[in-house]
Amino acid sequence: MAIYGLWVINKAGGLVYQRNFAEGLAQLSSNENLVLAGTLHGIHAITSRLSPTGPSSGAQVIEGESFKMLIHLTTTGTKFVLLVSTAEHHGESILQKVYEAYSDAVMKNPFHTPEMPIRSEGFDQRITAVIGNGHL
To answer: What is the pTM of this model?
Structure first.
């Protein structure tokens, strides 16, 4: 079981935080990461409108052959995306802990501007405590 990476995407689709934890992900430029985050934002918006049973919060899991993306959408529209191995079964609880770390270390920081890139040593430390080096 491995956790490969974490993205935080603001409500406009901009990548405000990106961190890799384990080997396995392609090494992408910052521009490529921004494009992928924007694309995922669009896919998420489309899936929220496609639900045959009425309103939906959109895709929560996108699974590939060798990894899956777990998506946690907050009430403010911020998305937390965890890139994990297909064998990872604790992703949802990890995403909840990441969201709690974000709430405590970023949103309670009076110097952080919402929707802007996250530059918080406290957040980085809490993410390291939650995820470590990516191997659980």
So the answer is: 0.88
